[in-house]
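Hi everyone,

Forwarding the result from last night's run.
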Amino acid sequence: MIQVRSLSLIAGLEEITLRAGHQGADNIIRWPYVAENNDIGDWIYGGELIFVTGLNWQWQSEDFIQLIRLAKTKDASGLVILTHSPYITSIPEEVLAIANQEGLPLFEQPYSLPMVKVTELLSNSIIKSDLAHQSIRWLMEHLLESRQPTEVTMIKAEEFGIQANSHFSVAIVVPELHQKGDLTRSQFLLNQFLSNNNSIFPLLEYHQGWLLSLPFDIEESSNILNKWQELHTALNTQGFKCNIGVSAGEGLAQFHATAFQAKQSVDFAMHQENSYVVHYRDLGINQLFSGLEDHGQLAIFCQKNLGQLYNCHGWQETQLKNTLRCYFEHLGSVRQTATALSIHRNTLSNRLCKIEKLTGNDLNNAQQRLSLQNALIMERLIIGKPIK
């Protein structure tokens, strides 16, 4: 990925100088875009480096300021203004100030530097970077397919600068069904996240979504989940609803297993009522259930223990199952469960009696209580989210 800070390092583009918005120097450049006016909101999706030539539009300070704010909102990587021309002589100081205020990189390019040359050189650099990442994607795909990496694979990893014994965290991001957010923009945000966190691993399409991997020092292990939660929050803020499954491993030999654990985690998250981030270590007994590809035996167990509540999503059945979950979450305490549900204890007792009748289980029996709790977990995995 080409970062903003690297633009003037591309051979032939040395004359382009960064004038303001240095805070965004880590922004990645997805593609160049030439703006003929400041009304380009419908045409950019994130990561564009916007060029303003001055042709076909009488640019004023207000126009530049409006474009800067729009570009920032749309997560454009930066803005390049061509100066010393009959159209734009220089960049106004108030425009530079707004770019600094918004943290949007603003470059100045001499009009004498042909745009066709600039876009060609930049596009070629982006393509070369993508090709280099493609080699690492091949390595990642090979690691995902192999339970035990070959010696050749490990040598290749070293050539790419990936330490064989490094710690890494894997996350699988899966958009919710009927997602209305723009996937091109979402993919850019994921790439930007990897760039901001200095990951050598590129974004990889995987399991109806994307696989991301971050290296980390063992001292940072307690904070790595926070990074994925921040990503989830950022995506939701942008209107991209998704679930994220996370796991961590030590050494490339564990990459296959770690990715599988992250897949189990996101599969579990997808069957919950709300989208969120799930770490494999927090799955508990769900590690066992979600790891089974054949759900036939799980279905038989659920049918046996949930009885008439199994695969029933009507209002009353859903209420009873949610009551039962709350009861288990509060360790069978009638008082705490009633308080959490904001109902009278007698109402709770009536519901529990009805649950016992419909399921055929005795909540005072430890084994039957455990079976009921596990059946509730399994049902979500094999059927899906309950209807509220």
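The two ends are 43 Å apart (CA to CA).

Cheers,
N.
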